[in-house]
Design brief:
The chain is α/β, with parallel strands linked by helices and 212 residues long. The protein has 6 helices and 8 strands. Strands 4-3-5-6-8-7 form a 6-stranded mixed beta sheet, with helices on both faces. The chain has a two-stranded antiparallel sheet with strand order 1-2. Strand 3, helix 2 and strand 4 form a beta-alpha-beta unit. It is globular, with a radius of gyration of 16 Å.
Length: 212
Amino acid sequence: MARHIVQEANEAPDGRRVAPAAVRNSGPLIEALRVRLPSQGCILEVASGTGQHAAAFAAAFPALDWIPSDVDPCQRDSIAAWRRESGLKNFAEPLAIDIAAPWPVARGRAQVVLTINLLHLIPEPFVLRLFEEARAALSDRGRMIVYGPFLRGSSYASDGDRAFDASLRDRDPAIGYKSVEAVSDVALATGLTPIATDAMPANNLLLTFAAP
């Protein structure tokens, strides 16, 4: 199973976990995704975390079917709690997806595979595995969308990014920031073409890749 860091969050009595970062970035992500998501279809979110994003996105895009997932059973419980609280019909039960293993998803099932704040928390070899499985899950002309902090070449966007990356590598030397260029190379190797890079708050980026 892939090593991972479970994000810090508070837990409500109904089982929903609330992460401050998800509270902050849900709005900007929704606005950015409006021009990157299709008008209809299935969105597979990999490493959905607490489920806050899935709940917010399913509400913001009612014509899209939202399938969340997470490797951690506690996170899946939180996602399920957010799903119950939302009552949204386009918000599916969470899948157990481990990026280090084959995904329980039919080939070509999704029009979009989305992952948020994952790449800097996984070892380098798992980035390739993530894109390979995403490509298999995507339909023709589907899209892979990746959000998070990245290096630009070998440079950090800020001193804060440098300090955060150092703190991650202190916890686990195998994880940490990946460069936009390295991620794009992995995407190309799996048959996905970079088509957009959107600047986001706090120096984060939203990278979009397209399948043929």
